[in-house]
Amino acid sequence: MSSCTTATTSFPTKVPHIHSWKNDVFPKNQLLGTLSLSSKKNSHLGFTVKTSSQTNFLSAMDEDCKLEVSSSDIPDGYSKELEIAVRAVHMACLLCQRVQDNLLSESSEHVHSKEDNSPVTIADWSVQAIVSWVLSEAYGSENVSIVAEEDVEALSKASAVGLLEAVVRTVNECLADAPRFGLKGPGTDLDAKAVLEAISRCSLAGATGSKFWVLDPVDGTLGFVRGDQYAIALALIEDGEPVLGVLGCPNYPMKKEWLSYQNGYRRILSRLTSHTSESLDKGSVLYARKGGGRAWMQPLMCRENNFVWPNSAREIRASSIDNPALATFCEPVEKANSSHSFTAGLAHSVGLRNQPLRVYSMVKYAAIARGDAEIFMKFARAGYKEKIWDHAAGVLIIEEAGGVVTDAGGRPLDFSKGEYLEGLDRVTSTFATRHINPKNHGVEKTKKEGSGGARNNGNDNGDEPFGGFFGPGGGFNIPGLGGAYGGGFGGPKGGYAKGGVIRPSVVCKDKGPCLGKKLRCPAKCFKSYSRAGKGYGYGGGSGGCTMDCKKKCVAYC
Ligand SMILES: Nc1ncnc2c1ncn2[C@@H]1O[C@H](COP(=O)(O)OS(=O)(=O)O)[C@@H](OP(=O)(O)O)[C@H]1O
Ligand SMILES: [Mg+2]
Predict the structure, then answer these.
(1) Per-residue pLDDT tens digits for 394-411
(2) What is the C-alpha separation between 11 and 371, in angstroms, rounded?
(3) How far apart are the first and last CA of the chain?
(4) Residue 221 CA: which ligand 1 atom is closest?
(5) Closest ligand 1 atom number to CA of residue 360
(6) pTM of the full predicted structure?
């Protein structure tokens, strides 16, 4: 019998409640306390981990703690890959925490500029090196294809000798800890050549293969250098679809309530309190594999402890809130990455009332998967092409947690076309929506058709569900999306134009008092947009409403 236990939570009772997030990442009045987290009671004990199928690469040090429990409802595929990926990401989180601590205490000596002016730190290269090294050791470098964000160009220059030394040192410090994560270390330190090789083994060319890993070593580099949220994102893609996703979120705590404690306070408090696996300053690692319908969240381990797989993981579920007024959407912190004014208009038009949750990096995906928010909107500048490593891990985790991820047109994201997400609907945009029963809400149909709200612009009888993401009668209707692109709503017969905006109408198909009744969105629910911002190019009108086809038979804003 396993002697391992799940550590209990240590939470100081007299902690000041502080809402002042750096850069307003979690704005004041943010709902963090008001959204209900729909967590299942399951522990991680149902998760299959077959130690017999693992290679010697996994050290024997935590054999006692491995669970031999099998589970019929979780597919067994990728269990070895998942375990190694989770261990590697935990190790990378520790590396990043160390570098971030140094960064915050030593000024910006460790921050460098890439050609696109985004800051890149020692952590980016070091994480890429260690993940590449770990995967190559596990499978043989010739068998592993990794697509990752960083290259070695800047690091190989004669002028970057000091930088390279710092990366090599960081990599070796981290790998020296490998046994604590149940991974075999290199034995002797890697030299600069080996580190550069590990980094450059990750090539963009691999993105066209049928099976490859995709890594964003530090997603949300801005958040990282500002001492805020960031993520380490590792996914395995097979035949164009993510099959494994692991998201390391070193500043995203296990408990939603802890989000309201400012990062710096959490760090100080945790040093004053006893360390457990859920100390206040500890972040988390989220993971899932395709088809299981389950996603998990683990606390980062304390620095002096050994990592035990898969102890302390708890199942997470996407939110089940279905009232837009209670829902929250996430979006990037930086306006340059996504138009805040556009999303504000869209949010208003669909009845979202809460302040947006602006958070750096793929932690937005973590927030949705954990049920801290319901929707993710990102509308990048025209011409910007989304990269696969900024989405792959998060998409899978959300989907397995019960959410839906599509582009603005309701189509699933396509990871089969190389380094970029090609063919995103019109502008680059992604949506992550809450858990919803597709059959009840008309999503299945729109997904099959390969479109969503915008698809219904061409609806010529006004009878079909609009809104693409969610049909009438439940969930959020997001008709504003189609309208905001200039298409309006409804169609030549079913729609009604006012001020350049076509109002949708719907004939209710739900059995009950509303069956057959025609509902039309009130005109006041719509307003026109000329542009969302320089360079964004969103035109047309926007607006939307919710149709209650179940009980009250009314359409309201
Ligand atoms: N102009 C522009 N538009 C849209 N997206 C861009 C743009 N430039 C960069 N990126 C990519 O966005 C990643 C950061 O996205 P976020 O959603 O985390 O944005 S934000 O940091 O919260 O503002 C960021 O990831 P990292 O580079 O890993 O930080 C980039 O891949
Ligand atoms: Mg990124």
Answers:
(1) 999 999 999 888 887 778
(2) 21
(3) 57
(4) 29
(5) 22
(6) 0.69
